[in-house]
Specification:
Length: 136
């Protein structure tokens, strides 16, 4: 997202708050049981976050599903949000009883459900609230 696009979409939101979590990517494979994960250096580290929104734009998810998942430790266990399709805003919170729990680390996962799968998506991140106050 360019600075102009961000200023139109989220006026008054800083680069620290709004960031591209995963730029547009096209993934594909032949296997019916393929699973791909975002690489660890690109995970969201939410150690100080209380509420984060992920805006997921899925253009294509043929024979596969795109997920966001979070874990307290890099080794897991990882908790998945529901499968994502079209444009979805996932609000992850560390509040007790949250439907999409925000643990420390967040990553995406693509899981094939049939052979000849393809996924095209982009994910933006907006930090709404962090320990010590509100971001916006």
């Amino acid at each position: 997202m360019t600075a102009y696009e961000r200023s139109v979409a989220r006026p008054g939101v800083s680069d620290e708050q709004w960031a591209v979590f995963q730029d547009w990517v096209v993934l594909e494979g032949p296997g019916a049981t393929d699973v791909l994960y975002q690489l660890p250096p690109f995970w969201h580290d939410g150690k100080d976050d209380e509420l984060v929104q992920f805006v997921v734009r899925v253009v294509t998810a043929t024979n596969c599903a795109v997920y966001l998942e979070s874990a307290l430790f890099p080794e897991g266990p990882w908790d998945a949000c529901s499968g994502l399709s079209a444009t979805t805003t996932v609000q992850m919170s560390n509040a007790p009883g949250a439907s999409d729990l925000l643990n420390r680390f967040v990553r995406w996962r693509v899981a094939a459900s049939g052979g000849g799968w393809v996924a095209c998506f982009k994910i933006d991140r907006l930090r709404v609230r962090y320990r010590g106050g509100r971001v916006r």
